[in-house]
Amino acid sequence: MQFIALIIARNNPEQLFACLSVLSFCGIGFAKLCSLHFRREDWNMLLNEARDLENDQLTFESDDIDYDSDDDEENIIIENISTYTSKFHSTIALLSKLYLVTCVVYIASPFVEYAIYKSQNEDFPLPHILPMWAPFDEYFCGYLVMVFIEFIASVYCVVIHIIFDCFSAGSMILICGQFSLLRDYCLRIGGRGNMLSHSNRRDSRAHYRIKLCHKYHVIILR
Q: Which residues cross the membrane (predicted)?
């Protein structure tokens, strides 16, 4: 029905622009919905891999590994995960608020505009949330049904945008945080450098941490 409205409005620049802008937003939402639906196994795998990676990191350096700590046992894992988790929460909150405010303003603005024109005793067509072909406006019940459908479609489209963008932003934040953690953990391979004498326990520590760095690097790139 939006495509029909676009064709009808081809000689009306203002209406044409409104149809194009809304149709593009809905089209992107439809593309995101297709990605979430048809590639849900890939999204679930990404989520499971991230959870397993963090759980593995939170149990790193088991007690059965005998090596010299060189007084560098600060738990940078928890600190790093907490840092990018807080960034994720703040980003999600910001995106959700932006989309929700936009949704409320967009849904309410046609009716506010209609009320303003009617208060000035000016003729104004019945308000619609979405610029779409509305052949049932001459019937009040048909008009109400169309507005209800437009309301559901608008809210659903915004929800799809929120879910996809939050998941995408969260994945990028996770990857950046993991690479930052990998860098910090690589710096700990040789310890603080306070003890320079040869020690088998310190060699075991370095060898163990090299294996962990390689393991996490492979997981992140995969």
A: 98-117, 142-164
